[in-house]
Automatic annotation (TrEMBL):
Originating species: Isosphaera pallida (strain ATCC 43644 / DSM 9630 / IS1B)
GO MF term list: electron transfer activity; heme binding; metal ion binding
Domain Cytochrome c: 56-148
Residue ranges with Low complexity bias: 450-462
Protein name: Cytochrome c domain-containing protein
Pfam families (alphabetical): CBM60, PSCyt1, PSCyt3, PSD2, PSD3, PSD4, PSD5
PROSITE patterns given in the database record: CYTC (PS51007)
InterPro entries: CBM60_xylan-bd, Cyt_c-like_dom, Cyt_c_Planctomycete-type, DUF1585, DUF1587, DUF1588, DUF1592, DUF1595
Protein keywords: Heme, Iron, Metal-binding
Annotated transmembrane regions: none
Disordered: annotated span: 446-466
Length: 821
């Protein structure tokens, strides 16, 4: 392995661009003279007044753009990157000045890296810029981006009224009502945007989902509130088969559990018979050995089967129900044979059981108005529903909302329903309200003006640009809880909001650290972690069972659980984010440990396991990641390399050019002896070489792991070659040396991970105005030893997380730190 891994090349530490740094005085002076001669060079004499200096700097940047960047883009880039068909989705024909360049800052940071690597324009494209031209345009772009102003008010971005996704809905119902509701396949899958399924812009509410919410609300309230007047008899199927033949005085026996002495059930038996002799088939019903009824079964075929019912009394515990064939008949001469056929036995009851025991939620709910109910039932109803609605809506409710809910409950009560049923219906209405299904952030207008949602204000056309103001305490409590727990706030967070404590940065930090240690923080690993690492795709992975017999459904579950526990541990124990690359530990049960070749782990329970060799570390060598980045029958260095570029380094390659055959369809490649040779032939196409040099080089570093993540030294009898080479001459061999290469690019990983976590926290994609925030978060995290808690805390203290755009008529710009004081 080369020792000069930090030399210029594809993987390198890239400093932030928004800290007013200069790339080097000599380089900038050279660039200034090169693009404009003495006239432009004289512009470097800046005025003493900061505002004048800023304007002068921007004017110089305009000249730099017009004389260096614009001609370069026109000559070498725009022909491929323009219009709707722009390659890689990168449109450069609209970049006409430094302002449009800065607005597309994220794109141009990627452009800078590709220019420095020399892979854009592609090597086969003519004309190609000289090294001097490429260097000049890179330096001017860096200067323009580095002078981006991070000192003014930070635009927090647009807030979309966000629907609860499936996971958030399930968790909220659990924490609100104590009901474990499984949406399962009944709820349609949530759309994904920017890699996550909690993005407000894609969380629509189609009619089908609204129907599911209505059905779910009815099911949930029935589980949460048990009605005393309708101990609804349950229906239990004791036998359900196509047919059971009972002959020669045989019997069918089934068990009927009963919760109390002398409880009564109605038994239904579906039967027919093979009729023979002078009398019909006779069927006896026995309960605990005692015959209680005899039926004559006259139906002679299944299509005419009869249903026989009888009410029986049971004892507490298990009761034996038997169906007996009483009159067997067979005549050899005529081959007449009488038989009984039974296809179903169903029990309905108990008919006389006691009222159901109230649920814990039900007891707590009705305790709210218990003292008032005898004296004033309407006041009690209002108190109960106001308390519940405030928790469900995650904010105090208005007088009008309380009036409407109370009126609904009273209407149901006047119709003849029980008091409990009236409350049940009102709660069902709350569960289908937009204020429950959506995270509505209401702007607080001046006294006497109606409140409006942020999305409603944004929809109103206004020539005046918006200003920024902090969100309310209740909204901030919800942002915190749905970020860290994928659920509603708990009592402590609600109390902090009610007391106005969430304006205080120290209180926010204390709440964040408390919430990260709570068991509910597992949701951060389950929802953020699995989507960032893309291991949800493991559910659909289909490794060849013939080639990989060790793979089964139990191992699939273990692979997922390992990664979830690993991510959860990093958040809960406040580990450095670099553990995602180099953490020398994992979590395994006996089955997964044996799969990895780890001794000393027994049982189904997962526990932390130290990794003692260089084979595995971090998430990249976990079986879940290795499996989703493979093909069903073989590994894929391309997929694994692409995965590192996208998920770890945040530098996704552009889409493959059209009409380029896949590796499997390339006949010349199939004729090659090894996968490495086949990929080399694939890269022979200049259109493929630019990206594949990077992807393949990274991916080959993990070739010691097969398509399901098991270590191997040989493939089809040939030694594994896990060496790789990257642009800039960086070479390595095997996963340990690959990790060392990636750690040299820790700045890129910090930024990529920060952008992913911030996107998930905000529920929206990042824009150019978020660049300063990202850089600040990265810097704060690095200065605190890369501790993940520092990153989470800083996200929750950031302007995009704590503020929103508002119209000038409603609020003036507010200094967040001053407001906190």
């Amino acid at each position: 392995m080369r020792s000069d891994l930090d030399r210029p090349g594809f993987l390198r530490a890239r400093p932030a661009l928004s800290t007013h740094r200069f790339v080097g005085a000599s380089a900038l002076v050279w660039a200034a003279l090169w693009v404009g001669g003495p006239a432009l060079a004289s512009a470097w004499s800046m005025p003493d007044d900061p505002n004048d200096a800023k304007q002068a700097e921007l004017a110089v940047n305009d000249q730099r753009f017009n004389q260096v960047v614009a001609p370069f883009l026109a000559k070498y880039c725009v022909s491929c990157h323009q219009g709707d068909e722009a390659k890689g989705g990168l449109q450069l024909d609209g970049i006409t000045d430094q302002e449009s360049l800065v607005k597309n800052r994220r794109d141009f940071e990627n452009v800078l890296m590709r220019l420095e690597d020399g892979d854009m324009p592609p090597p086969n494209k003519m004309p190609r810029p000289s090294e001097e031209e490429s260097k000049a345009v890179r330096e001017v772009i860096e200067v323009i981006l580095s002078t981006f102003d991070c000192t003014g008010p930070v635009d927090p971005g647009r807030v979309t009224m966000r629907r609860l996704n499936k996971s958030e809905y399930i968790n909220t119902i659990r924490d609100l009502m104590g009901v474990e509701f499984e949406a399962g396949v009944d709820f349609p899958s949530d759309d994904v945007g920017y890699g996550f399924d909690n993005i407000g812009d894609v969380l629509a509410l189609p009619p089908l989902l609204m129907e599911k919410y209505l059905d779910a609300a009815g099911e949930i309230v029935e589980k949460a509130i048990r009605l005393p007047e309708t101990t609804r008899p349950s229906v239990r199927t004791l036998l359900n088969q196509h047919q059971v033949l009972v002959s020669t005085k045989g019997e069918i026996a089934v068990d009927l559990p009963s919760g109390g002495e002398r409880w009564e059930y109605v038994l239904s038996i579906r039967a027919w018979g093979d009729q023979a002799g002078s009398e019909p088939v006779k069927m006896g019903l026995l309960v605990n050995g005692q015959q209680v009824k005899v039926f004559e079964v006259k139906a002679d075929r299944e299509s005419r089967a009869e249903v026989f019912e009888h009410q029986v009394r049971t004892r507490a515990g298990t009761n034996k129900i038997a169906i007996v064939f009483l009159n067997d008949f067979y005549q050899p001469e005529t081959r007449s044979d009488r038989n009984l056929h039974v296809s179903a036995i169903v029990a309905k009851g108990p008919l006389n059981g006691p009222p159901p025991e109230p649920t814990a939620f039900q007891k707590a709910l009705f305790a709210v108005g218990a003292d008032q109910r005898k004296a004033n039932e309407v006041a009690a109803t209002r108190a109960i529903l106001s308390h519940f609605a405030a928790r469900a809506y995650r904010r105090p409710i208005t007088r009008d909302e309380a009036d409407r809910l109370t009126a609904l409950a009273r209407k149901i009560k006047r119709s003849g329903a029980s008091y409990e049923r009236s409350i049940q219906v009102a709660i069902q209405a709350i569960l289908v309200s937009p204020h429950f299904l959506f995270r509505v952030e209401v702007e607080r207008p001046p006294q006497g003006q109606p409140a409006t949602t942020t999305s409603e204000r944004a929809a109103a056309a206004s020539p005046t640009p918006p200003t920024f103001a902090p969100i309310g305490d209740w909204e901030l409590a919800s942002r915190l809880s749905y970020f860290l727990w994928s659920s509603m706030p708990d009592d402590e967070l609600f109390a902090a909001a009610a007391q106005g404590k969430l304006r205080n940065e120290a209180e926010i930090e204390a709440q964040v650290r408390r919430m990260l240690r709570a068991p509910k923080a597992r949701a951060l690993a389950e929802n953020f972690g699995t989507q960032w690492l893309q291991i949800r795709r493991l559910e659909d992975a289909t490794p060849s069972r013939r080639q990989f017999p060790a793979f089964n459904e139990a191992l699939r579950r273990d692979m997922t659980e390992e990664t979830i526990r690993f991510v959860e541990y990093i958040f809960r124990e406040d580990r450095p984010i670099l553990d995602f690359i180099q953490g020398r530990y994992t979590f395994a049960n006996e089955r997964l440990a044996k799969f990895y070749g780890i001794d000393g782990v027994q049982g189904e329970e997962f526990r932390r396991v130290e990794l003692t060799d260089d084979r595995r570390a971090g998430v990249l060598t976990q079986a879940s990641v290795l499996t989703v980045t493979s093909n069903p029958t073989r590994t894929s260095p391309v997929k694994r390399g692409k995965y590192i570029l996208e998920q770890i380094l945040g530098t996704p390659p552009p889409p493959a050019p059209p009409n380029v055959p896949d590796l499997e369809d390339n006949r010349k490649a199939r004729a090659a002896a090894t996968l490495r040779q086949r990929l080399e032939q694939h890269r022979a196409d200049p259109n493929c070489a630019v990206c594949h040099i990077k992807m393949d080089g990274l991916g080959f570093g993990m070739e010691n792991f097969d398509a399901i993540g098991q270590w191997r030294d040989k493939d089809h009898g040939q030694p594994i070659d896990a060496s790789g080479e990257l642009p800039g001459g960086v070479t390595f061999n095997g996963p340990a040396e690959l990790r060392a290469v990636l750690l040299k690019s820790r700045d890129q990983f910090r930024k990529a991970f920060t952008e992913k976590l911030l996107t998930y926290a905000l529920g929206r994609g990042l824009d150019s105005h978020d660049a300063c925030v990202v850089d600040r978060l990265v810097q704060a995290t690095a200065e605190d030893g890369d501790r993940i808690s520092r990153l989470v805390v800083e996200i929750c203290l950031s302007e995009p997380f704590r503020m929103r755009r508002v119209q000038p008529a409603q609020a003036a710009p507010i200094d967040l730190k001053a407001a906190a004081r």
